[in-house]
Amino acid sequence: MKLTALRLTVLAVLTLSFFAFVCGDSKNETTDVKKDNTTQTQNQTNQNTTNKMQDTNKPKTDSVKADDKTDSKDSKGSNNVVIKTSMGNIEIELFEKEAPLHVANFKKLVNSGFYDNTTFHRVIPGFMIQGGDPNSKDSDRSNDGQGGPGYTIPAEIKAKHEKGSLAGARLGDQVNPKKESSGSQFYIVTGEASHLDGQYTVYGKVTKGMDIALKIENVKKDAADNPIDKVVIEKVSFK
After folding, report:
1. Burial bucket for residue 235 (CB in 10 Å: 0-12, 13-18, 19+)
2. Which alpha helices (H) appear in the chain, and where do they start and end?
3. What secondary structure does DSSP assign to 112-181, as a single string?
4. Which terminus of the chain, N or C, has fewer Cβ atoms within 10 Å?
5. 113-138: pLDDT as tens digits
6. Domains of the chain: which residue ranges?
7. Is 61 helix (H, G, I), strand (E, B) or coil?
8. Cβ contacts of 164 within 8 Å, gap of 6 or more
9. What one-character DSSP code corresponds to residue 187?
10. Are 231 and 86 in contact (CB under 8 A)?
11. For the chain, first and last CA: distance in Å?
12. How far apart are CA 173 and CA 177, in angstroms?
């Protein structure tokens, strides 16, 4: 009887030990699975965040795809615009065939009133006058020439630079090897600029008011070629 009781006791102890061992391993495995799931979720979250950041940092050229040419409906299909400045009006014909993306974007900005109350912030006699920067609306002159709508436009380099040509300003080749134009800044050629052929996108030309452009290029300016007295683009509209 004593031997049988001892055997039962040993058997009970072994059974409990085995049960504890199995339960313990099961708990650890469940914890490991939760850790793995948490890690996978965190990795996925980090990947999603990275993707969003990459999407945010991409140039928003989607705004100037060919589909945007439908914006011309708002302007009744006109490719003629009037830039009303504080010194007089300049009329321009847009080259939709040569530079459809630039023209579609320009029309969109005109329709939205984007250019209203901006200035010609850079003028160089015998060369060009430059405008279209939203930063020029305020009183801080130091950031003029650095602003835009937040995207660039793919290069459409075809037309040559002639007196009166309208072209897209852009950053230099070192940081902009594709020669993409600024989303809003433009310049009007007032003199010799043939050295810019093949480098910048021309998408229009002055048809009337070249005398106004020549007056603007000769106003008094500071060391940054910014007119001391603002030359305001009061409104741009379609003719």
Report:
1. middle
2. 2-57, 100-112, 210-217
3. HTTTTTEEEEEEETTTEEEE--GGGGSS--TTTTS--SS-EE-----SPP-TTEEEE----TTT-TT-PE
4. N
5. 999 999 999 999 999 999 999 999 99
6. 1-58, 63-238
7. helix
8. 188, 189, 190, 205, 206, 207, 210, 213
9. E
10. yes
11. 116
12. 4
Q: Residue 220's closest CA among 145, 136, 142, 125? A: 125
Nearest to 237 by CA among 27, 78, 95, 125: 78
Residue with tokens 């741009």: 236
> What CATH number should be reported for the domain whose range is 63-238?
2.40.100.10
Q: Are 96 and 204 in contact (CB under 8 A)?
A: no
Could you tell me if 213 and 190 are in contact, meaning their C-beta atoms sit under 8 angstroms apart? yes
Burial of 226 (0-12, 13-18, 19+ CB in 10 A): buried
Cα distances (Å, whole numbers) of residue 16 to 7, 9, 19, 26, 28: 14, 11, 5, 15, 18
103 with 203: CB under 8 angstroms?
yes
Instruction: Output the six-digit token pair for 113.
Output: 């009133």
Q: Tell me the torsion sign for CA atoms 36, 38, 44, 47.
A: negative
For 28-61, the pLDDT digits (tens) are: 333 333 333 333 333 333 333 333 333 323 333 3
Sign, CA torsion 86/91/97/98: negative
Distance CA 107, CA 93 (A): 12
Strand, coil or helix: 52: helix
DSSP 227: B
pLDDT tens-digit series, residues 73-118: 455 579 999 999 999 999 999 999 999 999 999 999 999 999 999 9
